[in-house]
Specification:
Blueprint: H1 4-17, E1 18-22, H2 25-30, E2 36-40, E3 45-49, H3 51-57, E4 66-73, E5 79-84, H4 85-91, H5 96-100, H6 115-124, H7 136-155, H8 176-190, H9 196-205, H10 217-224, H11 232-249, H12 261-287, H13 291-302, E6 328-335, E7 344-352, E8 357-360, H14 366-370, E9 381-382
Parallel strand pairs: 7-9
Antiparallel strand pairs: 1-5, 2-3, 3-4, 4-5, 6-7, 7-8
Length: 400
């Protein structure tokens, strides 16, 4: 525990690098979503320029912005934005007038211990990242990625067609409208975003007579995966999404009322995450595949080199076809012995169970280049760049 002097010094540093602002400062950027992107999670948030706008206006310093922020509870129950001031004054100096209008002078903070604020300080001021994997947003994003990887590995299509949900934005104000709006965005991704093509391919894979039209996605999903009918967390999550999304999009809403939007949204994400876990477990059993392994294979495949042109018939690489249907008995690898006037190279020697052997080293056009310069072949070194995709596995992945 820090002594009084250390605590005083720590608070003095915080007062110099942290500024407190009304939460509505975020709304001014959200309203200009063509220029700015506001990303938030339970612990923190960031305001940046959108990728498209930045590419077109990178020289326009007056609009450039990059500000990290957190949250701190006020005594009246509201939430203040805690901005990292060096980001504002150094990276986003032309935005100072806008933030000045929302500045909170001598705010009165909640007397209760503000765990979220303390977590944010530890992460962004003290450099601790121990909370990263514990955040519900990270857990949900990871599980959606596992679900997508599982389906992509066996059907070639994502389960959620919009991708892996890299951003989950928390409500920007403590009222029921902001809460409902945040839920509506999740609804669009998690329900409207279920890929009809994937459901159709799963139906064919299991030889089911389910015609997938997409007008009642969840109903059709349960026909393909009837086990979901008894998945309590999954069904509770679907019910929640439908109910709150209807309030945000159907008819005319009543005036907004004060509501603990952030806390409730966090609880909802925990329920939704549990529902996604139930979905993954059912898919793993039906597909006889491990979601972690499937997701890792998908990522590894992205690293494989792409062939854009075939070799000439006389090229030695054409002999690689001889490996088809052979079993490997041994693999030797290392650096090739030195050959005068030839570049250095790594070597693979593969021995097959039938006694055949394949040796692989690298060729280059170095000799052509050095004829026009003072370079020597030994000045160059060509390496193999191996990309390895793991074998398929049906090992059960236990998710906490």
């Amino acid at each position: 525990m820090p002594n009084e002097k250390q605590q005083s010094e720590k608070e003095d540093i915080e007062s110099k690098v942290l500024g407190y602002f009304d939460q509505q400062v975020l709304a001014s950027y959200i309203n200009e979503s063509d220029k700015y992107e506001v990303t938030t999670d339970y612990l923190s948030g960031k305001i940046t320029n959108t990728e498209i706008w930045y590419k077109e206006n990178v020289s326009n310093e007056e609009k450039l912005i990059s500000i990290r922020f957190g949250y701190r509870s006020l005594i009246n129950g509201e939430i203040a934005i805690v901005a990292f001031l060096p980001d504002l004054f150094e990276k986003s100096k032309f935005h100072i007038p806008r933030w000045k209008g929302f500045f909170l002078d001598n705010p009165t903070f909640s007397r209760k211990k503000d765990i979220r604020f303390e977590m944010w300080k530890e992460t962004y001021l003290e450099g601790s990242w121990k909370y990263g994997d514990t955040l519900i947003t990270r857990k949900l994003i990871n599980n959606i990625s596992l679900c997508n990887g599982l389906c992509e590995e066996c059907t070639g299509k994502l389960f959620f067609k919009y991708g892996n949900l890299e951003k989950i934005n928390f409500p920007i104000a403590e009222n029921d409208h902001q809460y409902q709006d945040s839920i509506a965005i999740l609804y669009g991704f998690l329900i409207d975003g279920i890929n009809i093509e994937t459901l159709s391919l799963l139906s064919k894979r299991w030889e089911l007579n389910v015609e997938v039209k997409g007008d009642r996605t969840i109903t059709e999903l349960k026909k393909i995966l009837p086990e979901l009918k008894k998945a309590k967390k999954f069904n509770d999550a679907i019910s929640l999404l439908r109910k709150q999304r209807a309030k945000a999009t159907h008819g005319v809403r009543k005036n907004a009322i004060k509501f603990k939007a952030t806390l409730q949204f966090k609880k909802d994400l925990e329920l939704i995450n549990s529902g996604i876990c139930e979905l993954i477990r059912i898919l793993e059993r039906k597909l006889k595949m491990d979601s972690r392994n499937a997701s890792n294979r998908i990522e590894a495949k992205k690293m494989l080199p792409r062939i854009v042109k075939g070799p000439e018939p006389n090229f030695s690489i054409c002999q690689a076809k001889n490996m088809i249907n052979k079993q490997i008995a041994n693999v030797e690898f290392g650096s090739r012995e030195y050959i005068e006037h030839v570049h250095e190279s790594e070597v693979l020697i593969i021995t097959f169970t039938d006694g055949s052997i394949l040796g692989i080293d690298t060729g280059s056009n170095i000799q052509n280049i050095i004829n026009q310069s003072k370079l020597k072949p030994s000045d160059f070194h060509v390496d193999f760049n191996l990309s390895w995709v793991p074998k398929k596995s049906n090992r059960k992945y236990l998710r906490k």
